[in-house]
Amino acid sequence: MDPPPSQKALVFDAYGTLFDVHSVITECEALFPGKGASLSQLWRGKQLEYTWLRSLMGRYADFSAITRAALSTACNVLRLDLSDAAARRLMDAYLVLKAFPDVVDTLNRLHGRKLAILSNGSSAMLDAVVRHAGLDQLLDAVLSVDALRIFKPHPSVYAYAAERLQAPAGAIGFVSSNFWDVAGATSFGFRTFWINRTGAAPDDLGYQPVAVLSQLTELPALLA
Fold first, then answer.
1. Residue of 179, 194, 196, 50 whose CA lies nearest to 120
2. For residue 157, which of 13, 112, 126, 171 sits 20 to 30 Å off, Cα-Cα?
3. SS3 label, residue 175
4. How would DSSP label each residue in 84-138?
């Protein structure tokens, strides 16, 4: 039996949802002993902040440029001397982020539905990390905001996914570990699932997911 319409297409966020952004801690710690975790956290925070600020400013720069700028800012805040060689090493780490352990098995179990990534990542960064994790054979599409030159959670980004997947918003399930992303996708009309691996509190944005999951492996049962 075919899955109901709301389950025929699933769209996944990439960073923090399928790929562990904090797997860069190993490289951060190797370059800056004792500062690896704090650098990774601040780097990620500035990376997200810059996507939102640039969207509001109408001054798009791709995710690679934003990631590099966020790294520079994080090092300045922490008073770390970031050489060009160290910056290249840390930027390269973003191309080989580790997929979470539950990703490959879950995507295999969801075979038969359209599966796609929708990410703020640049096309080049996404292609590299998807290939490195061996997910390229499991996904039907990898969609970057490069095509629109604005970042999630702008509604045009979610509309782009619906257009590319040729499905109405209500027929698309959206999966993210980032609550702001879940809220944006819910507001647009997607059926959303929040992967809350860390037990974080939800933001009060007026939009809630269909379900909250502690790990990705819980998703297939909710779609059966």
1. 50
2. 112
3. strand
4. HHHHHHHHHHGGGPPBPTTHHHHHHHTBTBEEEEEESS-HHHHHHHHHHHT-TTT
List 142's β-bridge partners, or say none. Answer: 117
Exposure b/e, 61-99, CB count within 10 A at least 16 = b? ebbbebbbebbebbbeeeebebeeebeeebbebbeebbb
Residue 1 confidence (pLDDT) above 90: no
HSE-up of residue 116 (Cα within 13 Å, Cβ side): 24
- Would you state the structure tokens that stand for residue 147, as one six-digit string? 């095509």
Reported as type and span, the H/E element at residue 181 is helix 179-188
Give percent helix, percent strand, percent coil of the chain, each to the nearest 5.
50, 15, 35
Pairing of strands 114-119, 9-12: parallel
DSSP state, 198? T
Q: Which range among 2-11, 114-123, 187-196 shows the weakest confidence by mean pLDDT?
A: 2-11
Q: Is 28 left (phi over 0), alpha (psi -120 to 50) or beta?
A: alpha
d(CA 139, CA 11): 10
What digits encode the pLDDT tens for the residues 40-75?
Answer: 999 999 999 999 999 999 999 999 999 999 999 999
Backbone angles phi, psi at 124, to 5 degrees: -65, -45
204 is catalytic: no
**Catalytic choice (13, 81, 92, 181):** 13
